[in-house]
Amino acid sequence: MSGSDENTKTEARQLNARMFGKLLLIAVMMFGFGYALVPIYKQICELTGVNILTPKDISLKEVSNSQIDKTREITVEFDANTQGPWRFRPTVASIKVHPGEMTQVVYEVVNKQPYKMDAQAIPSYAPQQASNYFKKMECFCFQQQTLNANEARQMPVVFYIDPALPKDVKTITLSYTFFEVGGKSKVASSGAQGKT
After folding, report:
1. Which is nearest to 70 in space by CA: 93, 45, 98, 48?
2. How far is CA 174 from the centre of its chain?
3. So where does this one cross the membrane (predicted)?
4. Nearest C-alpha neighbor of 117 from the set 155, 142, 151
């Protein structure tokens, strides 16, 4: 009897050790997957052209070496969407540019509220493949914007279109969605209503 009990205990220990090893392996794999999610997310966003917040490294050397293709003309349309209490719009609806030509356009934003707000602009492109060829040198979308009460601001976008853009793309639409970050306006507005 005691030998049988001893064998059962030994088998139970071996099963427990195997189960512990499997659980440890699963925990390590979960940690590795969680750690890998950030670069995977960045790659997916870069490939799809969604939620690109950081500028790509574009050196002046790269720009100066690009040739302006005078044989082609691309229509660039500008669009603006807002998620918040402000006016946001491009100062021009569209322009025609040659690939490789440095161009600047301006977007205008007006904070219509009597308090400071933080906001962020997220760009998107149509057709989606254009995001790989639309090179921004300067853009208000690279960082959050803090708008004081009733402040109006003009914000430039300096860009060029890579001459490697496929020949069948004749029009590119650059669209920005401008939205509030952090929800400070709700706190400020409730505080302002409490004072009145």
Report:
1. 98
2. 14
3. 20-41
4. 151
**Residue 117 identity (one-letter amino acid):** M
Q: Which tokens sit at 90?
A: 């491009």
Dist. CA 148–CA 163, nearest whole Å? 40
CA distance 156 to 160: 13
- Positive or negative: CA dihedral 142, 144, 150, 151: negative
Per the CB < 8 A criterion, the answer to whether 151 and 110 are in contact is yes
Please provide residue 70's backbone torsions phi and psi, each rounded to the nearest 5 degrees: -75, -10
What span, in angstroms and rounded, lies between the C-alpha atoms of 34 and 90? Answer: 39
DSSP states of the chain: -HHHHHHHHHHHHHHHHHHHHHHHHHHHHHHHHHHHHHHHHHHHHHHHT-S--S-----HHHHHHPPP-TT--EEEEEEEEEESSEEEEES-SEEEE-TT--EEEEEEEEE-SSS-EEEEEEEEEESGGGGGTEEEEEEGGGS-EEE-TT-EEEEEEEEEE-TTS-TT--EEEEEEEEEESTTHHHHHHHHHHHH-
φ/ψ bin of 25: left (φ > 0), alpha (ψ from -120 to 50), beta (otherwise): alpha
Contact 75, 171 (CB under 8 A): yes
Look at the pTM and tell me if it is higher than 0.70.
no
How many whole angstroms separate alpha carbon 103 and alpha carbon 54?
A: 20
